[in-house]
Amino acid sequence: TMALCLKQVFNKDKTFRPRKKFEPGTQRFELYKKAQASLKSGLDLKAVVQLPPGESINDWIAVHVVDFFNRINLIYGTMSEYCTEKTCPIMSGGLKYEYRWQDDSKYKKPTKLSAPQYMCMLMDWIEMLINNEDIFPTRIGVPFPKQFQQVCTKILTRLFRVFVHVYIHHFDSIINMGAEAHVNTCYKHFYYFIREFSLVDHRELEPLVRMPQGWGG
């Protein structure tokens, strides 16, 4: 089943197609367009992540969680051939940090997994959550659940670990593929967003604090 799971996640056709789109005509579609436009305009990323006046914070967070999921899934998908059971038998961020997988179904206790296994479980788990109407409602007038921001914190914390693993273990591959600028921009955008709304515990950010680019911490 592991091979099948990986095939589903990293099949090129699927990897390069966003998992969830925003329906035209909805508030979130308009917000998404606004966010993308300001991103492309070359504005300072610290300004881009700020909540637009009069908008709902949960809508703003929902739009970004889905967008970051799609983009980070794509980044990892492009380098998944370099991240194998052999090269990365443990899901880690250098020698100091090891990430274990836990969910409500198969792995009820934190479990050691290889990096590709962890990524596979992670992408499937996030896809299930963002497609769950009880958590990410898409119908107009349906409120977000009380635990919405807690769920988003969990998703974003785990997505941050993808950056940790990719930067620490696969940075050479990023450079060789000419993807460094793209990955750095995505990381900065993600980093400023989670800091703006205090969505990820600062201790989780420690592995990348001393990044050579100088914008961690």
Could you name the key traits of this structure?
two-stranded antiparallel ribbon, disordered N terminus, globular, 8 helices, mainly alpha, Butyryl-CoA Dehydrogenase, subunit A, domain 3, 217 residues
Beta-strand proportion: under 5%
CATH superfamily: MOB kinase activator
Return the average pLDDT rounded to an integer.
Answer: 84
H/E topology pattern? HHHHHEEHHH
Keywords: Kinase, Metal-binding, Transferase, Zinc
Binding site for Zn(2+): 83, 88, 165, 170
GO molecular function: kinase activity
Pfam families: Mob1_phocein
Give a description of the structure.
The protein is an all-alpha fold and 217 residues long. It has one domain: Butyryl-CoA Dehydrogenase, subunit A, domain 3, CATH 1.20.140.30. Helix content is 53%, strand content 2%. It is built from 8 helices and 2 strands; from the N terminus they run H-H-H-H-H-E-E-H-H-H. A hairpin with a 3-residue loop joins strand 1 (92-93) and strand 2 (97-98). Residues 1-18 have low confidence and may be disordered. Keywords: Kinase, Metal-binding, Transferase, Zinc. It comes from Grus americana. This is MOB3C kinase. Zn(2+) binds at residues 83, 88, 165, 170.
